[in-house]
Design brief:
Elements (H helix, E strand, L loop, with lengths): L1 H11 L3 H20 L5 H8 L3 H29 L1 H21 L3 H29 L5 H29 L8 H4 L1 H15 L13 H20 L7 H26 L14 H31 L4 H6 L2 H21 L1 H24 L5 H26 L8 H33 L2 H31 L3
Protein name: MFS transporter
Pfam families: MFS_1
InterPro entries: MFS (IPR011701), MFS_dom (IPR020846), MFS_trans_sf (IPR036259)
């Protein structure tokens, strides 16, 4: 079986750029669906009579489902083969996207988005695994550069496509078209992948820690869920108890993982990484960065559509200059990071903070900024994000030993999604609460201040990570 899979990979090397296009298209579809919902939120709220808490949950639960199972998805690819699990993931993602489009209530849409995120956790890990196998030579840099650019464009494409589909109202489907569009795209990816994507060699001895994944999912949901619905439920005492219980469950998860390792099992995470100060401080910086990242897009979208009454299509197109600035910065940040290390990341965070200040000044001084003006002031933030996001993973994983690279990458990916979900829950709740008692402008200004504080935390932790990495272990 192993030799057959290896032969298939070798045979596929001649058409590996076609394989790259297929798997990156699946990654792009996942990235687009992280953002495509944003510009449709006001329409969804009206049609499904969804509360503000449910709107936040529609975005956050997708990330939670993905984050808690991404390591499990990677392990399944090792056990059953990347091609098999990739096809199952794409098929599941396509079906759950259709379920999202058919949802008849806010609660049903949240459940469908959870299912969509969990199927993405089967699909996405196989993308990087396939690239690692097919590009072991000098073409690897070009392949991963394409992958990085696609990641950067997915957000802007999500906003633009979401605005376009809601505005066109194709077939009278309205906002539901943003999910239905995944149907034909998913079928094309499945057909193409079945024909030419190779089955990478399986890794003998790999085992699945499903109980660990379930415990982690319950713990994280118990922490982030109350953040999403706390305002709607009046921050009752049991809300805080539920969050404390979630923290206890996460602590139980770590105890379970240690006990599993002591029995000779294969834990979900490499526990040795938790003792690496440089890596842990790096993960803290990752949490602060992504906490401020996706929640930024949420509050800007809410402000444009609910406070400024900008229609979905212009609101979506506002982010295109930001995406262009992101791609330009990302193309150069890798080379700069090789020369200057984490200083480039710190500069990127400082640039983002400056960009948030420019946005705040614009919002405070202009009563109703036009879409063109909003697009212009977002460029600084986009360039700063591009400087950080591309080299961040390499900087954080630099202290990880080769034998722990897979587990370290899994922890990195999990942290990015969990922090994004936590940011959406916390900053989204803050925005809705302040907008209800004051105005959208005031809510946005406070949210931007909190995001700036989070980026300051990222800078502090990056500096501490750099010092820890310089100290011999």
């Amino acid at each position: 079986m192993h030799s057959t899979s290896a032969a298939a990979v070798t045979a596929a090397s001649s058409r590996r750029w076609h394989v790259l296009a297929i798997v990156v298209a699946a990654q792009f579809m996942f990235g687009v669906d992280s953002f495509i919902v944003n510009v449709a939120l006001p329409t969804i709220a009206v049609e499904l009579n969804a509360s503000s808490s449910q709107l936040g949950a529609v975005i956050a639960i997708y990330l939670i489902g993905y984050a808690t199972l991404i390591v499990t998805g990677g392990r399944l690819g090792d056990i059953y083969g990347t091609k098999t699990v990739f096809l199952l993931g794409v098929a599941g993602f396509t079906l759950t996207s259709l379920w999202c489009g058919l949802a008849q209530s806010g609660t049903e849409l949240i459940l469908a988005r959870l299912a969509q995120g969990t199927t993405a956790a089967l699909m996405v890990p196989q993308v990087l695994a396939t690239l690692h196998v097919l590009f072991p030579d000098a073409a690897r840099t070009k392949a991963f550069a394409i992958y990085g650019i696609v990641l950067g464009l997915a957000g802007a494409a999500g906003f633009a496509l979401g605005g376009l589909l809601v505005t066109l109202d194709l077939g009278g489907f309205g906002w539901r078209a943003i999910f239905f569009v995944n149907g034909p795209i998913g079928l094309i990816i499945i057909a193409a992948a079945a024909l030419i994507v190779p089955q990478a060699p399986r890794r003998p001895g790999t085992r699945l820690d499903l109980p660990g994944a379930v415990i982690l999912f319950i713990g994280l949901l118990s922490i982030i869920g109350p953040l999403l619905f706390g305002q709607e439920l009046g921050w009752a005492p049991w809300i805080w108890l539920a969050m404390a219980g979630g923290g206890a469950i996460v602590a139980l998860f770590l105890r379970y993982e240690r006990a599993l390792a002591a029995r000779g099992g294969m834990p979900l995470i490499d526990l040795g990484l938790l003792a690496d100060p440089a890596f842990m401080r790096g993960l803290g910086a990752v949490f602060c960065f992504f906490f401020a990242n996706q929640s930024f897009y949420l509050v800007i979208t809410l402000y444009m559509q609910m406070a400024l009454q900008i229609p979905p299509l212009p609101a979506g197109l506002v982010f295109l200059p930001l995406a262009l600035a992101f791609v330009i910065a990302a193309r150069h940040s890798g080379a700069r990071a090789k020369r200057r290390g984490t200083l480039v990341l710190i500069e990127g965070c400082l640039l983002q903070i400056a960009g948030l200040g420019v946005i705040a000044l614009t919002v405070a001084s202009v009563a109703a900024p036009s879409p063109a003006l909003v697009a212009l002031v977002l460029i600084v933030v986009g360039y700063g994000q591009g400087l950080v996001m591309a080299p961040l993973s390499g900087a954080v994983l630099a202290s990880v030993q080769a034998h722990s690279a897979g587990s370290g990458s899994g922890l990195y990916g999990t942290t990015t999604q969990i922090s994004s979900a936590a940011g959406i829950a916390a900053i989204g709740s803050l925005y809705f609460a302040l907008a209800a008692v004051s105005s959208g402008r005031f809510a946005l200004l406070v949210a931007l201040a909190v995001l700036a504080v989070s980026l300051v935390g990222c800078i502090v932790l990056l500096r501490r990570m750099r010092r820890a990495a310089l100290v011999p272990s």
